[in-house]
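We emphasize that the prediction below concerns an isolated chain of 283 residues; any contacts that depend on oligomerization or on bound cofactors are therefore not represented. The input was used exactly as deposited, without trimming of termini.
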Amino acid sequence: RLPDKATFVPTIARIVNTWYARLLWRLDSDNFPEWTEELLAILSSGKKQLIIELSPPPHNRPRTYWNFKTSSFYLVIPKLEPPPNAKIVAAFDQDFDNLLNKSGTGPTDEGWDDLATDAPASRSGAPDPRRPVATHAVSEASRLDDRPKTDRLPELQELSRPNDLFAQTSPYILTLDIGVPLVIRCSHEPTLDLLAAYFNRWGRPNTNDSQRGLVTELTAPQRNVYKVELVESAFLSGINDTLIVEPYINFRSYSGNINPTLLLAFIEGVLGYKMVHTNGNNW
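Result of the prediction step, given as a token string:
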């Protein structure tokens, strides 16, 4: 099932278009010469096809794989509302990495099944509550003893994709800027996923939302006072690094800042981040 049957065909079309776009990008890229050569050799051996299947839970994100027995691409689409397009792009890139793995004929799990759409969970979970987390002032050069100690830098090909690399790389860096909007930036995407899911779920509904009937059906849930929205990184594809909190309705007479206390309590008390610097407006 899909939450809105009217969007069934557009949703399928969007996912298929994303699949084609990521495949063509990989074929045109100079970063995967061996992979491209192997795939083109397979495709040149005869007629090939793309088979699209609808899948029931527990799979909750689109998956793709190559079936060596049928010589076909398979695109499996869950019967659920799809995750954001940035997640789909990152998921397809990961699937294409394993596309020519002959050890199996189906997609590997690799921790992607926890991309829930109603309450996004992380691939590596929330930050370890006991792990010290540096925030905001991590660049202070005076802390000479805290400089990284490493024998060598890793080779480029040794590093995983950004969504996996930064989910596992500590310290997690988080900053919070007070204002309207209130902006949280974080290197650990699962942290932002959990913040957005929690505060959207328990946000206070705006009973005086006069614009609700103009933008949604009257039967739709009430909008909250604050919109909590994830923003995709401008640096890297397929990863969110910013969370923006702002009123759904802009009040011209409203000049105060958004109260950050509950957010900070959640960040420090639940997620385990520790403040290392603040000037009153930034953490």
